[in-house]
């Protein structure tokens, strides 16, 4: 099956997670990284130590009880991670009826999305998927990519995120701004950040940025590396 790749915004949304075992805890951690409004977690078993620790987060409510259909009211996204195959499929059917996004741990055919292996460096997010065919390979690729995309990528994105609005505020032509951003990306800044050579980063910025922004360089590179 070919999936449409997408980055989904769950900020300020309500989420439901049914099943708080090892898989459920892993899913919950990934959801919380994206700042949802609230995550309701359901499981009939006693919560494990890690689940208890995570449930101290004010965005999480753990309830030790059976799933009910009304638990899906006002829910944006649902994860079913129980060891009960029949229950997981029932949740998938309800999600289909209510047009709710769902990921069913043991039933990819009933899910309308799968969760890829993810690498995060600050605001940089890389997602790898094999369409559910071989999760072991996607994990290997993720480990390989982690060796390439280190902290310096996060720092570079932070730097560009600071530069971009200042450049746009100068009111120059779009073509000028596009050329400048491409020049910055093609420059050795990324390599110098990896080496921790902030003096050279400052020199490159001085040579590349519009003169109006040169006095702002100290604040642009503040707390990088």
Structure explained in plain terms:
The protein has 225 residues and is an alpha/beta fold. It folds into 2 domains: 1-115, Rossmann fold, CATH 3.40.50.720; 151-220. The protein contains 9 helices and 7 strands; from the N terminus they run E-H-E-H-E-E-H-E-E-E-H-H-H-H-H-H. The protein has a 5-stranded parallel beta sheet with strand order 3-2-1-4-5, sandwiched between helices. Strands 6-7 form a two-stranded antiparallel ribbon. It is elongated. The model has no long low-confidence stretch (mean pLDDT 94).
Structure, briefly:
The protein is an alpha/beta fold and 225 residues long.
List how many beta strands DSSP finds.
Answer: 7
Query: Which strands sit side by side, in order, in the main sheet?
Result: 3-2-1-4-5
Give the SSE order as H and E letters. EHEHEEHEEEHHHHHH
Q: What top-tier CATH class of the largest domain fits best?
A: Alpha Beta
> What's the number of domains?
2
From the alpha-carbon coordinates, what is the Rg to the nearest angstrom? Answer: 22 Å
SS-based class: alpha/beta
CATH architecture classification name of the largest domain: 3-Layer(aba) Sandwich
* Distance separating the two termini: 42 Å
Query: What can be said about the biggest beta sheet?
Result: 5 strands, parallel
Percent helix range? 40-55%
Structure keywords:
225 residues; two-stranded antiparallel sheet; alpha/beta; elongated; 5-stranded parallel sheet
Question: How are the elements arranged and paired?
Answer:
Layout: E1 14-18, H1 22-32, E2 38-42, H2 49-54, E3 60-63, E4 77-80, H3 85-98, E5 101-104, E6 117-121, E7 124-128, H4 135-148, H5 151-169, H6 174-186, H7 189-195, H8 198-208, H9 217-220
Parallel strand pairs: 1-2, 1-4, 2-3, 4-5
Antiparallel strand pairs: 6-7
Helix pairs in contact: 5-7
């Amino acid at each position: 099956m070919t999936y449409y790749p997408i980055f989904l915004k769950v900020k300020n949304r309500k989420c439901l997670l049914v099943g708080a075992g090892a898989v459920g805890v892993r899913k919950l951690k990934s959801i919380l990284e994206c700042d949802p409004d609230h995550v309701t977690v359901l499981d009939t078993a006693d919560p494990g130590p890690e689940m208890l620790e995570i449930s101290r987060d004010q965005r999480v409510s753990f309830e030790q009880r059976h799933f009910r259909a009304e638990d899906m009211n006002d829910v944006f996204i649902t994860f079913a991670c129980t060891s009960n195959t029949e229950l997981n499929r029932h949740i998938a059917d309800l999600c289909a009826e209510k047009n709710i996004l769902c990921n069913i741990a043991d039933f990819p055919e009933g899910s309308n999305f799968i969760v890829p292996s993810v690498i995060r460096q600050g605001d940089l997010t890389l997602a790898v998927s094999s369409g559910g065919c071989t999760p072991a390979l996607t994990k290997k690729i993720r480990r390989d990519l982690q060796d390439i995309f280190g902290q310096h990528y996060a720092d570079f994105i932070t730097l560009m995120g600071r530069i971009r609005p200042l450049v746009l505020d100068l009111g120059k032509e779009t073509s000028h701004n596009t050329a400048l951003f491409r020049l910055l990306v093609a420059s050795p800044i990324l390599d110098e950040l990896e080496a921790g050579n902030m003096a050279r980063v400052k020199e490159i910025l001085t040579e590349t940025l519009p003169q109006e922004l040169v006095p702002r360089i100290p604040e642009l590179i503040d707390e990088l590396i």
